[in-house]
Design brief:
The protein is an all-alpha fold and about 500 residues long. The protein has one domain (about 5-465). A two-stranded antiparallel ribbon has the order 1-2. The termini are far apart. Mean pLDDT is about 75; it is low at about 495-500. About 75% of the residues lie in helices and about 0% in strands. It has 20 helices and two strands.
Amino acid sequence: MESSFDLLMQGFATALTPMNLVWAALGVLLGTAIGVLPGIGPAMAVALLLPVTYALEPTGAFIMFAGIYFGGMFGGSTTSILLNTPGESAAVVAAMEGNPMARKGRGSQALAAAAIGHFIGALIGITLLTLLAPTVASVAVNIGAPDYLAVMVLAFIAVTSVLGSSRIRGFASLLIGLTIGLIGLDEMTGQQRLTFGLLPLADGIDVVIVAVGLFAIGESLWVAAHLRHTSGKPIPVGRPWLGKEDLRRSWKPWLRGPVIGFPFGAIPAGGAEIPTFLSYVTEKRLSRHKDEFGKGAIEGVAGPEATASASAAGTMVSMLTLGLPTTAVAAVMLAAFQQYGIQPGPLLFQRESDLVWALIASMFIGSVLLLVLNLPLAPVWAKLLQIPRPYLYAGILFFASIGAYAVGGSSLDLLVLFIVGLIGFAMRRYGLPVLPAIIAVILGPTAEQQMRRALQISDGQVIGLVNTPFSLTVYAVVLLILAWPLLARFLPRRKAVDQERERDEDRTEV
């Protein structure tokens, strides 16, 4: 039986043929270009290109899809950093520190940190995919509803605890997101919730519309409201490369990110959203420059971006070995497999060995192409900031509207988009962070479903939510996060008391 290394080398031989290289490069370019447009992420790109690939043979089609996936993730982080407008949900965290960096004239450095982070994350993630796919898949099979719920509660608590000027505002934002997530049909009873009798709302509000509304529309309205009070001068682009200090502060987050991202990508727990938030929390806790967070700390770009890329590789584990799509892109790719009469699952590596290993090899190639194409282009992308802001944000409103309309082709989607945009504007006005609302909309319905499933399994006993070692461990971490501010209050005071005692002793000696 051939080893994974031998099969991977065969995959490289297939993926490095001139035509397949063209498909990989085309996928990366299309993914980046489409990811840059607010609201049009890689999932929509793959879905739109599905009909185009009918004439292609499967290997070429999936090599292009992989390029679109990784390219779309980087493209989404580009608009997050430069315009505070994520192209897709995995790029939401990049806006936290990347956009303040761009406003300080360090947009090129933020983009370079993101590009290198994506490359390192993809390299480590795909290597782990090659080596550990069967093991990670077997672990993922054993994770049940209480464990999924615990992980999502951890994501909710983590993101509300580190963002905004107060925890109360963070939880208020979380509540807004959970409320939006309730809109639509109850999956278990079929009853309508918060639809106001409007039939189109029975399907709920698409996450893309909420993300684009809160970020793109809310940001545009906020800037427009304050345009008279600001100078309106173009933001300087800055030098294109990372300095020694930037590299010193980035290399550890680049390596930590994949450790967080890959396992979360491999289990059905919401794709790259949870690990990117956890990576941000981790970097903030470990950084020596805590005062810079919220004002443009490069660690807050490097870590989450490496995490997102590794999570994308991890997503392929459960999709290829179990046939379980954990993200929207994986779901569309699963449909593409079925389009070719191929069923992902435990036997895929045996029945379609050439296709699978060519796909994995193309991910290595695509990540290299992504770095080669986008690192030199960082200053070019950063020049988007030099467009006069009235034109820039008018363009964002235009593309955001097109992206929202493309989701369902309904004029009601546009109305919902601008209502959500007004909510985003109000949240900025009253100091509520936007991110908890986004993660609540993304994970809220799934968390509710997992909670009800766990309660059903335990016949309504609350103990059914915490009856596994994994869930107990996660809830212990949640309690630590909640209790940490109370614990931290005593530590500085004790230190201050000790210092005061030392001063008193010194005075006494004198």
